[in-house]
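[job 0412] stage=complex_fold ligand=pyridoxal-5'-phosphate status=START
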Amino acid sequence: MSISENLRHVENTIAEAANRSGRRPDEVTLVAVSKTWPVETIQEAVEAGHRVFGENKVQELEQKVPAMAEDLQWHAIGHLQKNKVRKVIPLCTMIHSIDSIGLAERVDRIAGEEGRGIEGLLQVNVAEDDAKFGFSVAEVRAAVESLAELEHLRILGLMTVPAFDPEPENVRPHFARLRELRDELAESASISLPHLSMGMSHDFPVAIEEGATLVRVGSSIFGRRDYG
Ligand SMILES: *Cc1c(COP(=O)(O)O)cnc(C)c1O
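[job 0412] stage=complex_fold status=DONE, emitting structure tokens
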């Protein structure tokens, strides 16, 4: 199947999952995860009408963003090292993977120095999985109020990356937990946290049923990645 056919298929699956759960399909943004794929491959998705892409390495953003159309949106979705912050800020509109207070403060400070605003999501390790980056539930509860006051980094919601499980139903409780946590934080801190970034190729329909507004889908669009 071609990339444009894959995109249509993923978009239809998104619409079906949204309709099943009483949501509108346009409440869900498809972030096409183009990591490891060259510009020519990503261009096929652009030609099929897609505009929002996700990358997990600053180096790939540095190569791809200047080489492609200016009206695309790039999201940083992987763990971000503090020394890469200045490079990444001009390249993307949203960072999904704000995983510490120090990183949030640094992004805010450097965005201010660069005269830019940037959107961010707090990555939460809802499964309390040792191998994953992210705030614990207790940490994010303690941090959200002060981080919501940052001036240049606008915190718009939460993101999670549960450990891979081939059975999406096993992941559903983690997605539900992220939504409950978002609802709780938004209420207790009186802030708006409209976004939930959750769901990947094998489990995005379940994530949408549980409230995802951003799904990060790579291999179902571009095919299996070859890490060489
Ligand atoms: C690679 C990646 C994805 C996409 O994974 P697929 O299984 O290819 O859809 C989503 N989120 C993050 C954080 C990733 O690194």
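The domain at 3-222 is CATH 3.20.20.10 (TIM Barrel).
[job 0412] exit 0
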